[in-house]
Amino acid sequence: MRTSSGAPAYPIPSHVALLHYGESELRDAVSEFLLAGLDRPSEALVCFGEPGVGERLLRYLESRVGRDLSPDYRAGRIVVGAADPDVDRQLQNVIAPLEALRASGFALVRFVGIVAWNAPDFPPPEDFLWFESKLNEVISGFPVIGLCPYDLARMPARAIVYGALETHPFVLSGGALRQNPQFMAPDRYLRERLLTLPWLQDEVRTAIQPLGGGVGIHDRHDP
Amino acid sequence: MRFARSEQQVATPGHFALVHHGEVELRERLFDFLSPALDDPKQAIYLCGPPGWASRLLGYLEMSVGRSLRAEVTERRIILGKGDRDVDQQLQNLFDPVRELCDRGFSPVRVAGPAAWDEPGYAAPEDFLWYESRILRGIEGLPVAIMCTYDAARLPASALLYGAFETHSHTLTKGVLSESPSFLAADAYLKTRLIHLRWLEPDEKRGEVNSASEDRRERGRRSRKR
Q1: Chain-wide mean pLDDT for chain B?
Q2: In chain B, how many domains are there?
Q3: Cβ contact (<8 Å) for B157 and A159?
Q4: How many domains is chain A built from?
Q5: Which pLDDT value is given to residue B221?
């Protein structure tokens, strides 16, 4: 899925998992994605993640274009958003800027949300997975490309399988954008994955072990 | 080639990755894939993996079918093999018994073995990935289906993406077999993935890498970098 210039041809709206390894690949891929919008005044940018991460993305972009982007930030064309351990608030932190940018007349929003797993300022994994799946419904009403980077160097495999692959219709890896056959629509994901997450079932099994088995319920943040 | 509990079929020669979570699911999927061979004397099984794993898989299968499979092992209709620290030897350890079973007329031959990552006495991750990428070519023309099992509860994400999804034409997740759009044939995998593995590049920060603590720089030096 490429344009004539060789860049990935993102459908609009779309929800894309970026699979990368380490910070330098993230920097390159995200800067390229955002830079394409920076050159078009009709497009807006959102940098989102744990507290401080959005600002870091903005610095990457400034370093790439070689100029200060604070005028665009002050003008509201670039928005920096922060994650929240409460998943409902986090969803609101995504929807609010999308609504504001649509009301301002931007034709397209390029949204980058850096994924974290088991992080203190981020929703717990099972809540975050619900959020990722829910985003497919949320963005259907917005002219947005949502790019969710998953770092293979830091994430456990379950984050990739249940998050990147099962909640995103598209995957960007090694510069190639592909439709993702592992994707599950939100209602199916809720039924077949979220309600049967293996580590939550492990917790249930552990909890119903007879007393004296020496094992207690796991911390829910321990998958 | 059919499964025991599901309608779907896998073609031969075939090399697919089972992505599972933990040992309970592994046992279920092993039974689903391997047990049809137990009911058909024309079929055979080869089990492999890091040292000790073939016996463990056999134990799982025995537990699922509720009987000893010692007789099948004795007559070498089930062969227990093992991996090797030397990845060329590991590849040989796979192909030799599989070809033996085919030469003896068994068809199809079902193979299962777990992926291991950073495990002592086993191939280094980059060597293991090379091994995975060469398997399909080695079984060309043979009535063989190989299921490599990837435990999402234990493996790092890089094992899953670079191993399960990029070196296998199909993946089996939650019991559903589907094509892997990320799959790369052996030559493309060597050119576009193996020689560019990020952890082998000297300037990549490794502080947060989610795998064993061994210095990847050392690993890079002893890697074959084919």
Answers
A1: 88
A2: 1
A3: yes
A4: 1
A5: 37
Q: Which of A23, A157, A159 sits opposite B159 (nearest CB)?
A: A157
User: Which ipTM did the prediction report?
Assistant: 0.74
Pick the residue of A16, A21, A162, A172 with the most B CBs within 10 A to test the interface with B by mutation. Answer: A21
Asked if residue A192 is part of any domain, the answer here is no
Taking the CA of residue A122 and the nearest CA in chain B, the distance in Å comes to 18
CATH of the domain at A83: 3.40.50.300
pLDDT, one tens digit per residue, over A148-180 is 999 999 999 999 999 999 999 999 998 889 999
CB-CB under 8 Å, A180 with B181: yes
Assigned domain for A180 exists = yes
**Domain residues for B147?**
14-202+209-222
Q: Are A17 and A174 in contact (CB under 8 A)?
A: no
Partner-chain contact B21 A199, CB within 8 Å: yes
Strand partners, B46: B79, B111
pLDDT of B43 higher than 80 = yes
Kindly determine whether residue A157 and residue B156, on different chains, have CB atoms separated by under 8 Å. Answer: yes
Which of A18, A53, A182 is best to mutate for the B interface (most B CBs within 10 A)? A182
How close does chain B come to A64, measured CA to CA in Å? 19
| Chain B residue closest in CA terms to A25 | B198
Question: What's the CATH number where B122 sits?
Answer: 3.40.50.300
Q: Decide if A35 is inside a domain.
A: yes
